[in-house]
Amino acid sequence: MPIVSFDAKLRDRMLGLYRKLLGHPFVYDQVRPRVVGGIDMGPLYRGLDGEAARSVLDVGCGTGDALNHLSGYERYLGIDTDPIAIAAARARHGAKPNVRFEERLLEERDIDELAPTGVVLAGVLHHLDNDAGEAVLRLAAKSPRLVRIVTSDIVFLPGMVFNNVLAMMDRGRYCRHPDAYAALARRAGLEVERGELMRSSPDNERVQYYVMSLRPRRPA
Ligand SMILES: C[S@@+](CC[C@H](N)C(=O)[O-])C[C@H]1O[C@@H](n2cnc3c(N)ncnc32)[C@H](O)[C@@H]1O
Questions:
Q1: Which CATH number fits domain 38-216: 3.40.50.150, 3.90.170.10, 1.10.287.3510, 3.40.50.1950?
Q2: Average pLDDT of the chain?
């Protein structure tokens, strides 16, 4: 019995260490894509084209990967609760015009001040439980100019062992099945314009993400 509990403790400590390492900007940006077999988030950001890309709110911006893909925006605000990620984002992209990063939770004043046309939640919903996920989506949906919200998340998929093991070991504790992500968006009052699986990169199908394109629900 004591051996079993020691093993469980050791496993939890190892998992904790792994998750901590995964949060380091170098590991997140350089090592993780190699382990996964390539990560190309281009298709996600192409969902934020035209008018949606004018005024961009990036919730859970991490190290600012969105700005490797987006261009033509008039204003960009990246928000994240992780001070290390925000410091890395500022070092990379902070000098760009009309770009701002804030280390905190999303607040109503952000929506009032920015009135985003496009909102990005890349890899964020699986960090949030249902109440927190719904709250952040509802807040984003309050923007009077909102055209679209795009989301991407790790996802549990039947029979995809490698994908599911990585998802279980992820720092985010709320990985879901595709339907559960879509249901969350609908509960927040949004319409799921598109919800589909996306390979982590064009030539790797071992790891997939669930990508949604959401818009304000139109009156019937
Ligand atoms: C998987 S990372 C994705 C980072 C970035 N969007 C990207 O695609 O590279 C998730 C990020 O969400 C942040 N995060 C988690 N919960 C958050 C919350 N409630 N508000 C803001 N950021 C949050 C984490 O600190 C982390 O940087």
A1: 3.40.50.150
A2: 91
